[in-house]
């Protein structure tokens, strides 16, 4: 690094230099991570497209609540990672300023062109204050905080994949190359990668915590404590750089058991909300409609059948507004279509959401900033 | 909150509602905090302007390194708080989307206009996915992470003010209304507010840590754990809202002892770097120049005098390039002027930096977004 | 608090007084928490006893691995809470020393009997150094760190109960008073308490983090930052005090579906390890035995049957050491009994473990220290 | 590691083995750290002894409060490190139990003598429950939490040493081998080691945070996330192992400027409390005594002199109880002697405290447990 003839031993200080190097590192890391994120989002979108009309239960409190399209579920994750890409882009703006020329603390004592030096290294401009520039690690903290949020999203995704790959759910067939068997227990396949991904979130959060604790109460300007910012910064960056391609590969090769997913989406009274909506449509006040469906569910549980198998007579005994159209409203396609708002799981909205996401994903790549490395 | 006739018991879920309320809270908090930050920055700038040509030591490793203008020192803090304002503005963009219409998890089942509802509540638009919208607390995490960085900046400022108000430094006269005396020790005045500000950084960091730990590994979508996001979110926001006006008031009333600051800036060989720069200018290679000045400092220490009091003959015995101009280069004004780069402490650059900061501070207020409350 | 005539305004300082008050608070909290822990452990033991010979799968990587007694599973948690009780007792020793007489920083200036004062307040003795005594918050940090570990144990317990109460597992019937239904989705019962317990672990960890960050780099002795130790200390203590009775009540009223548990323990090839052990017993080297069982499991999967349903001829085609005794070794009782070591799930060892735990739990109560309040 | 013939591939599982290895690591680390702590405490005690009757200001709120013996100040740190040694010893008890024989999750299936195996490896006994033993990392968390407290103590010590080595204080002469100079600023010596020690506290706290976050909400038993416990565990241990000998060496070679310390202890009205005590002794109510001394300090500040230089007449004008004995009570030795309680800074109590600490330090070494390595 020898910008604009500003060389070591001609007045440059270690303090400004290390600050510059760390900013270059964060900028390059962000650019690489943006690419890895784009790949990861692409695979999520491809899997969402391939899932077609397959459905699954959506859970609240981990209890099955309502059916959703598998694509809708995967698009929830896509939104999280879009936010991560946004946050990294915002962090890049604040990172991409050049401390060179700040000297040890009071500014360089040579006649130098800081603007030119900054430009030569691909920075958007020079930093504004020498004392701040040599003692500031905001860019590192903000970067690792962003990575921490990204890692949290991955941990949620990993948790769901771990759950869904257990025999109790059976939605996900663990891909061989990312799992381990047990010689002692040949019936088992362990989701090692997913568990590590979940665990790594703790590690990145630990890095973020260390970085912030380090600068608390530090007087200006440079203090040697700041040397300790390097390892957690590098570690958090390395962790995400190695995790993203692995989860991308996992997602490319995983197999969803759509039969089990669809079956789970069609049972367990997940059409209860749709049933109440049907009554509301018929003019029954919302509270009464839900009460009536509550009784109907009760009855179906006692009889060991689904809601749509209850005879009309029994339903009408619960509430007179039930009619022959009821049963045709409780099928999986009808229930899905009922959530007919932008952002809802109705297939036509999911289709549009997929298109929007594809466009945004493409623009992520298009806007990827040029970096001098 | 009853946007576009979308009322409770007509299909709205607690899950979407709480997500909406929390986003409204974060948005309003950001808007208030931006105003408080603008006031705080204004006071820092006013104090920097009032400091005029007063100088003080800049420290690295807490050891006196080089003299800087008091204004230059205060401008270092201004830069930190500009970044905080930026981060909050970026966080606001991602916060200001409306979850209403997401239902419990799969999307609303009523025909509603999410775009209109969002606009009515001052949101930039609706959220894109119902499962994400009801389980996402990114906006809260990003907000509290930003507050944590802001609190860290305040803790550094507080640390310096605590230090500089001790008799050992004596740069700062603690303002009575923000300090306590000791009936038992009448000679003492305690910087209680500053210590609390320093301590509160730990509290806000704890809130940020709780928020992130909460969502680690949470499966989609809403889980009751998320209820625990409320207290740390409110607490971090309240903490900053009460701290900013206090530090603003403190800074308005504090008195700087410019005599002691100038004196400290003029002693302790803080012109050693300038002395070396003088030799470099005369063609002495950088390394040799610093070596020569090292010897000169040694000599001055032995004689108990400042560098500029050494007779020319003794200096020339150390290196032949010293000449009569030397002594006139070591005064405080000359040393300050030497750091003649943008971002350096040379008075003409500090003056320009002040102007730039004033403009940016004004635009902070100008761009303050309108909020429906 | 007016020990041994040592009254305010006769030389006592706020610094020693607040340190004393906080120690009294921690000591009283520990004593109460020990009682709550003892109640909680008692209920776990009662449920373990009542579970009798019921079995369930033990999971590794959340995949079913081997069958264990339900009692064995509950005893795993009992061990964790024994450690928590131990840690609190150790923390109490270090807490129970009296700072009174330390003055503001240098020691009291009145002739007082610190030993007598300490004894009067139930302390084990006076603290040893006035500067340390007035600036030390180790006891608070150690206490909240211990609570954090306790909360982590509760979070693991809550996670399992949440999982096991989903329809996918169906081992646990959520107790009505600790759960909420959904008017909109009458088929659902939500494990609110369990989710809050899981979430509260994050809160207590945040308190622990705040406390530690607060004292980092604080010079001696008392600094006002220490005032901020109070809220996280009180909050962590309150959180555990309210959680423990709730989980105790939950555990008293929860119903285990032993039929589903036993069934899950009897299927899914969880006798594969036992099958290999059978071969090893017949002289087959361990590695080969596991290989052979791997093939047998494969065959059984293809045939859609359990291991013990494979005809002897097919088994012998895999390895000649299989004989007629094989099938009788694969029943649930035989598989459980096979883990015949102290700490293993063989019923005779679980019975002994239960007795040991009962004795230890009784001694917890017996040794509960007397506190002056 | 092949205890009691219990070899790999004869039924031993990786899960029990890794748990055993980690416990052996923690136990060995504790034993080494106890030795390093004993050395560190010895040096602190030696320096306290060598400080003799040298005094210095004690600070509260970083403002000079009262004079104390330098030995008294160093003994404050000794108390902290005694607590650390205690905590590590308590952690060792809970660590030193042997998981071998726990199998993968349900207990070993071979006839083995767990008691003998445990004894052979120097453990106090076997762990009590196989599911707990293979999924428990309490010992690692408790260990790193203890290290975190130790690191916090070192950070406080480092902070004070950094402060006291600045020209503003000048109490401490930085030892050459542990500091760096600046070729550019020959007047400077930087306390690099101390700053790193202060910074490393953040790192160890980050490790503790990662470890705890990792296990939050983990279902039983072994999950691969636990692999991530290893790096923070090793890192925290390594960090303390390298820091303790360095601070020990630093403390052995540092030079205290006792002249400056004594001078600082004798000025700045630090005898104000003693002056009030003198009046109280004469029957003046405490509040009035402090008021009177407040006025006297005011007067002395105006006259630019110390309290003991005020003429008796002027004092009696403030309060009639002043008499000729007053001035002889305000010398440094008299003020120190006034704090005449155990734990106070009166020289006779500091002498006894030193003896007590020496005895306790010796017993630390004596009780150091034997370890099989």
Give the SSE layout.
4 copies of one chain form a homotetramer.
Chain A (H helix, E strand, L loop, with lengths): L13 H38 L3 E6 L2 E7 H26 L18 H7 L9 H6 L2 H27 L7 E2 L6 E2 L7 E2 L1 H24 L14 H24 L1 E2 L1 H9 L5 H10 L4 H18 L8 H7 L13 H7 L8 H20 L7
Antiparallel strand pairs in A: 1-2, 3-6, 4-5
Account of the 3D structure:
Four copies of one chain form a homotetramer. Chain A has 13 helices and six strands. In chain A, a hairpin with a 2-residue loop joins strand 1 and strand 2. The first copy, chain A, is mainly alpha-helical and 373 residues long. In chain A, the strands form three sheets. Chain A has a two-stranded antiparallel sheet with strand order 1-2. A two-stranded antiparallel ribbon of chain A has the order 3-6. In chain A, strands 4-5 form a two-stranded antiparallel ribbon. The termini of chain A are close together. Helix content of chain A is 60%, strand content 6%. Chains in contact: A-B, A-C, A-D, B-C, B-D, C-D. Chains A and B meet through strand 1, strand 2, helix 2, helix 4 and helix 5 of A and strand 1, strand 2, helix 2, helix 4 and helix 5 of B.
């Amino acid at each position: 690094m020898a910008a604009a003839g500003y060389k070591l031993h001609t007045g440059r200080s270690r303090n400004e230099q290390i600050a510059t190097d760390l900013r270059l590192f964060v900028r390059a890391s962000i650019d690489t991570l943006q690419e890895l994120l784009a790949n990861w989002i692409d695979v999520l979108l491809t899997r969402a497209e391939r899932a077609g009309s397959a459905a699954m239960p959506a859970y609240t409190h981990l209890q099955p609540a309502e059916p959703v399209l598998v694509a809708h579920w995967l698009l929830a994750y896509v939104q999280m990672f879009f936010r991560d890409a946004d946050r990294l882009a915002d962090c890049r703006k604040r990172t991409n300023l050049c401390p060179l020329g700040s000297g040890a603390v009071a500014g360089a004592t040579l006649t130098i062109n800081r603007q030119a030096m900054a430009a030569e290294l691909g920075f958007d401009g020079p930093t504004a204050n020498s004392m701040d520039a040599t003692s500031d690690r905001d860019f590192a903290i903000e970067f690792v905080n962003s990575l921490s949020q990204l890692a949290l999203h991955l941990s949620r995704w990993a948790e769901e994949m771990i759950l869904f790959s257990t025999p109790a759910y059976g939605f996900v067939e663990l891909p061989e190359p990312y799992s381990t068997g047990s010689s002692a227990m040949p019936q088992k396949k362990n989701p090692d990668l997913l568990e590590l991904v979940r665990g790594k979130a703790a590690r990145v959060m630990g890095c973020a915590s260390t970085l912030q604790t380090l600068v608390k109460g530090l007087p200006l300007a440079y203090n040697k404590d700041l040397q300790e910012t390097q390892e957690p910064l590098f570690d958090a960056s390395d962790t995400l750089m190695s995790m993203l391609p692995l989860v991308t590969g996992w997602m490319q090769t995983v197999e969803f058991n759509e039969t089990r997913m669809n079956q789970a989406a069609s049972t367990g009274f997940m059409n209860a909300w749709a049933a109440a909506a049907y009554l509301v449509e018929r003019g029954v006040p919302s509270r009464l409609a839900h009460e009536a469906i509550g009784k109907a569910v009760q009855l179906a549980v006692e009889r060991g059948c689904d809601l749509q198998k209850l005879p009309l007579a029994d339903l009408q005994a619960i509430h007179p507004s039930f009619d022959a159209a009821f049963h045709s409203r409780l099928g999986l396609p009808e229930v899905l279509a009922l959530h007919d708002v932008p952002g809802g799981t109705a297939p036509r909205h999911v289709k549009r959401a997929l298109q929007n996401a594809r466009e945004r994903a493409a623009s992520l790549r298009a806007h990827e900033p040029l970096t001098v490395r």
